[in-house]
Amino acid sequence: MKTLCTGVSLHGKPRQRLSGIMVALLVVGLACVAGDASSPRRSSGTTAGSERTPTGAPHTGTDDAIRLGLLLTNVGPSALFARYEERGARLLIDQVNRAGGINGRQIELVYYDTEGKADRAAALYRRLATEDRVAAVIGPDSILVVLGMSSVPKEVRTMSVSAPGTYELIKEDDRDWIVTAWTMGGFAQSLILGYFKQRLGVQRIGVVTTADVIGEHTDRIIRNVAQLLGLEVVKTVAQPASDRDMLPSLRDLAATQPRPDAVLVFGSGPYGNIALNQTELVGLDVPLAYLGGNIVPELIKDVGPSVARRLYLVTGRLAVLDSLPANDSYGEALKRFAADYQAAYSEPPTLPSGIGYDMALPIVEALRAVGPDRARIREHIWNGQDFLGMQGVRFRRKPGDGIGTDPLDGVIATIHNEQFVFRGYLKPVYDELGITSAHITELMRNLKIITQ
């Protein structure tokens, strides 16, 4: 008999020995129930956070529920994000069901774990569409998974609201049936450079990134944003994401002449934190920017206090809710979301909690407007929505723009006492620089982030 743990499901796979902070992240005291690794978890009208028992057979269609797929990655470094994303999505679905559902029909979630494998995700996506007969799919959540199965939603004509941070790496032909709810990806985060120039007087930057396709792409984004701002990228250094000693690359960067006035670090998990911390070991005591997925309190606790004091990032308002100005136009809605989330799960929401909610929200809004027809859901998501997401950004998707948010809608954050703290709004900085949303849109087209 295999075991799965609700919340962070390992689906029978033995726990692997992980280094550093990832051990603490994956050891969560959640209830365990018996089940099979390929079985879905189903819930309809459950209380958020309650235990859910999986069943083995595909749905037989004997009830009137509207079924949605939930396809996340519950093993490895993505497990923590999936936990929060699942809770955010389930919070919305439970709220809808308690309010009477969609025209009296409850929403049922059919949940599978990709295990971080693109081929498995592809097979499960097809199963959701053909056997479980879902109306749409919430997920997948990892760019590495999405890239390996991006043709499948179009193949089975079932809409995916996913959460990869580098949506533009998805083939253009495959994007018709995939959008992303992760709004503060590499491009939006790289806009911190405007703050560095306008507020901190930075002229030259160094870049630390991962030695892979995503790292190379992020470096290209940074260089294009720097060019728009008239900043010089003095050098980019890169190492494999599995490395835990960044000193060779950082020494190389520190020896560059002229030295950089600031350093941007891209990389999620331990890689990003190690690179940030080791900057002071090589004398790079300059402003730092972080780009990547470590936008949860658990993942910033390993950032040293002296490094945190000079660290900046662009994020959504939910990450800095406790320090957000009282007159923020999104603040009241975000506080209601946070209160509902706290009541359901006895913990405050994180940015990925908002992302999970924002993955489910466009599908729910489409169901309310056009019902469970797959083609009409797709059409409505692409053309008929304007809503506030619980990350703290407004979504207005349109053909060619599967993200659907204004990157200048983000906020600037720093870290204090292991928490993200509001530092300012991004748009006024770019207004002062004379760079408009039209300039940003043109750059996004050049980078193929949007295609129309």
Explain this structure:
The structure is a single chain. This protein has 452 residues and is an alpha/beta fold. The chain folds into two domains: 239 residues, Response regulator (Rossmann fold), CATH 3.40.50.2300; 171 residues, Rossmann fold, CATH 3.40.50.2300. Helices cover 38% and strands 18% of the residues. Strands 10-9-11-12-13-16-17 form a seven-stranded mixed beta sheet, sandwiched between helices. A six-stranded mixed beta sheet has the order 3-5-4-6-7-8, with helices on both faces. Strands 1-2 form a two-stranded antiparallel ribbon. Helix 3 packs across helix 4 and helix 7 packs across helix 16. The longest helix has 20 residues. The radius of gyration is 21 Å and the shape is globular.
CATH fold-level name of the largest domain:
Rossmann fold
> Briefly, what CATH class of the largest domain?
Alpha Beta
Integer average pLDDT: 88
Count, helices? 17
**Corresponding CATH architecture of the largest domain:** 3-Layer(aba) Sandwich
- Number of domain modules: 2
Task: Based on Cα principal axes, name the global outline.
Answer: globular
Q: How far is the N terminus from the C terminus?
A: 51 Å
Helical content band: 25-40%
User: What characterizes the major β-sheet?
Assistant: 7 strands, mixed
Strand numbers in spatial order across the main sheet = 10-9-11-12-13-16-17
Oligomeric state as shown: single chain
Number-wise, the strands total 17
Report the portion of residues in β strands.
15-25%
Unreliably modeled segments: 1-37, 45-62
Would you identify the CATH H-level superfamily of the largest domain?
A: Response regulator
Rounded to an integer in angstroms, the radius of gyration calculated over CA atoms is 21 Å
How does the helix and strand content classify structurally? alpha/beta
